[in-house]
Amino acid sequence: GLTVHLPIHGSGRPVPVDELDRAARVFEDTAARAGFHGRHVLPPDTGFAIRMFAADGSYITFGSYVAATVGLTVGCYRE
User: Fold this and answer.
1) 6 dihedral zone (left: phi>0; alpha: psi -120 to 50; beta)
2) Is the pLDDT of residue 42 over 90?
3) pLDDT of residue 2
4) b or e along 19-46 (b: 16 or more beta carbons within 10 Å of the residue's beta carbon)?
5) Three-state helix/strand/coil letters over the chain
6) What is the pLDDT of residue 47?
């Protein structure tokens, strides 16, 4: 199979600390509507980051450290 990393979308600065909970809720609600589930918090040494997974092996990650980012990795698909 082949794993594909799509371009990461980032901001010029991180999400302010007092807004992280709200930003995470918006991300989770939006990702859940797109079929992602299973919230996983990544180790704190990577900054703030959560990842959610889809049934096809895709996962989406929201993080904020030096900048705020959203990245999507898609799973394998048969041709």
Assistant:
1) beta
2) no
3) 66
4) ebeebbeebbeebeeeebeeeeeeeeee
5) CCCEECCCEECCCCCCHHHHHHHHHHHHHHHHHCCCEEEEECCHHHCEEEEEECCCCCEEEEEECCCEEEEEEECCCCC
6) 78
**Residue 3 burial by Cβ neighbours in a 10 Å radius (0-12, 13-18, 19+):** exposed
Question: 0.85 exceeded by the pTM?
Answer: no
For residue 47, the tally of other CB atoms under 10 A from its CB is: 15
Position 79 pLDDT exceeds 60? no
Question: Which tens digits make up the pLDDT trace of 11-26?
Answer: 999 999 899 899 999 9
